[in-house]
Amino acid sequence: MARTLACTLATARALTALTRSLPTALRRPWERTNHAGRPVTLLEGPVAVAAALTGVLAGPAPRGAAALSVLVPGVLGGLDDLVGDSTTKGLRGHLGALRSGRVTTGAVKIGGLGGVAVVAALMELTSQETPPTTKGGGSPLRHAAVDSVVIAGSANLVNLLDLRPGRAVKVTTAAGLVLMLPAGSRTTAGAVVGVAALLPEDLAGESMLGDCGANALGSLLGLALVRGLPPRGRLVAAAVVTGLTLASERVSFTRVIESTPVLREIDAWGRDR
Fold first, then answer.
1. What single string gives the DSSP state of each residue in 131-152?
2. Is residue 254 part of a domain?
3. 50 assigned to some structural domain
4. pLDDT tens digit sequence for 187-214
5. Omega of the bond leading into 131 within 30 degrees of 0 (cis)
6. Which of 108, 81, 66 shows the shortest CA–CA distance to 228?
7. Which residues in 78-170 belong to E strands, given as ranges?
8. Number of domains in the chain
9. 200-249: per-residue pLDDT in tens?
10. For residue 241, is it within any domain?
């Protein structure tokens, strides 16, 4: 776990420094305007993916499910960042566009996240080195279905939180620290926590995870939940991420946070208000 954490932290800082020296032509496609009307780069996303992937590969086997859970969501999210239709938002918006015969990059991403989550869940169930908490009683297909909801739902949920400086990284870091306690999820969670090295630029409003980084980190966090929780715990996690995803179609998380004093203070910690 220590090696995973160290490699993730070091890679995140090294690549952050490297992105600052990139030619303008390479940086420009990743530049956006944030909620406050200030310029922000989405290059934090690819850096987060590379850092987490490095941490995963530096850790012990099995690595396949974790590497897949970082890389594919990162690529799908990056595609949405670069060429996505910003006028179509949310699960309802993308599925509505699909029903009308229009395929958005968001719809492609939703399908891809679901697919990779299923594959990762099946890899966990069939791995000989999977922690015992992943192989509780019940139908293997039922376990895979629940686990895939946790992984895909977490990928989407972290993306929904990436709307203010530092918010998504704070949440993934806090959750990752908790998931470093169970032996089964310790290494996976270490790769998530290591991405906290990107927090200074994120809090300053200079960079953000974007879909690329948020989907990858969320997916890896979901896998850590799968590895660290017993079957009933994973069922609860699946219900929570599903409920929050559905609630996000009607309720603004930002509005809820800003109207709740404790959440507002935690959310604002470390950044200019």
1. -GGGS-SS-HHHHHHHHHHHHH
2. no
3. yes
4. 999 999 999 999 999 999 999 999 999 9
5. no
6. 66
7. none
8. 1
9. 999 999 999 999 999 999 999 999 999 999 999 999 999 999 999 999 98
10. yes
